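fyi for ur records
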Amino acid sequence: MFRKLCTGALIAATFALPALAQGSGKTELTWMGQAGFKITSPGGKTIVIDPWLSGGPKTPAPYKTDLSALGKVDVLLVTHAHVDHLGDAPAIAKLNNTKLYGPADMVTPLITVGLIPAELGHRFNKSGSVKPAGIKVTAVKAEHSSLLVHKNAATDKLESHPAGEAVGYIIEMENGFKIWHMGDTGLFGDMKFINDHYKPDLILLPIGGNFTMGPEDAAYAVKNWMPAKNVIPMHYNSNPMTPGTLAEFQAAMKGATSKVVPMTEGQSVSF
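which gave:
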């Protein structure tokens, strides 16, 4: 059962409730566009993942122009170094004096090229777990690439740096509620293993195609390998190179046991 929170109002199945308060016992997600989410844990912690905000064409106001609108960020996660995922994460880390958690070989070049100081980077890899602010985060496989593109201040030219391998994250709240943010990924058979082993309650999965699974592949994965109670499609509707649509995904999900929870950028849902 979930409730949708729209701008200043809560839409529930039968009645309205006040907005989530700190320590409300619920998990709230706000879609920031592409693969970016702001998550408020049941204990009131703020988790930000893949924050492509200032450059994101669908970023909701006021986050596009004011990173401080996120409030205090307790946990900052990045799945890989592509600009639509790394986005404003270095700036958010420095603004909040918060560690940026990510794949080891992505965090290292972020430090060596000077995008973040060493003390604000935490390196870990697939099957590794961390527990910042009481939120358990485990890195899992994603079938994708990772490249850091950075402008050299001395030459004023763009440079490309290898940035390790992309990952997804199992994010476990204080009450045990688990979210699988898949990052960018294509199909791979171990999706079934990850689902069976970690048992996520909610899956955030890309459907845009071209760089990731398209709607039909994403629906195949859910129906055959990872039938979580609820799934939220992401990584579509903000880039002409990700042509997959919500309507195509919903059609491909016909007959699935999982519930598709459609969102628009800036909208929030709670579980």
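Helices lie at 83-86, 89-96, 104-112, 190-198, 215-224, 246-252. thats all i got for now
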